[in-house]
Amino acid sequence: MTGGHLQIVVCGAGPATDVAQLIEAAQQRCWTAAVTATPSAMDFIETQSLETLTGHPVRSTYQSSPGTRRSLPATDALIIAPATYNSINKIALGLADNYAMTSVAELIGRQVPTVIVPFVNAALTARAPFRHAVASLRDEGVRVLLGPDDHWEPHPPGSGNERQKFFPWTAAFETAAQLAHESRPAAPGHA
Ligand SMILES: Cc1cc2nc3c(=O)[nH]c(=O)nc-3n(C[C@H](O)[C@H](O)[C@H](O)COP(=O)(O)O)c2cc1C
């Protein structure tokens, strides 16, 4: 499987602190990666070290740093992780109230292979709006890693700190790389 470019969107939840693990998983497979953060996620991440690791600015607002293009670069896969209750509900509804959500709305609309990995406790995943959001995103072709088949279950309220170290960064990358591979047109003569 050849490499590609991975767009990562991080939301405001504990595992955002560890997003370098996803970047490293991608780079080990010859992918490049860039990080976009929701405004809340900015409190969880080390912007400078992520920029050094990826070679790309961390984007959180519409303002781009000098020399950076405003439009989205060509993207082979999108991973939204950790995805919060708040952002998952917004993405399903098509809300675009910050730069990260606008990027996500556009990339899903462009049919970029997309994986969402929630980090949401069981009280919140039990809510009807959340269940409808996950069903609606899956209907739209978005891969939401959640439930027994994905070996990723919601944690009991108050146990996020213990669960954080099990966040499935590698599975998220493998799933996105597989989706990207499946969505690539077959090379001529290899039908
Ligand atoms: C320390 C801390 C930890 C949080 N952990 C979570 C979490 O694990 N899951 C979640 O859905 N929200 C969590 N939140 C709440 C979100 O940060 C909050 O809903 C925020 O509005 C999410 O914004 P975003 O979706 O734009 O990133 C946490 C908030 C704080 C301050």
From TrEMBL:
SUPFAM superfamilies: Homo-oligomeric flavin-containing Cys decarboxylases, HFCD. It holds the Pfam family Flavoprotein. Residues 5-126 form the Flavoprotein domain. This is Flavoprotein domain-containing protein.
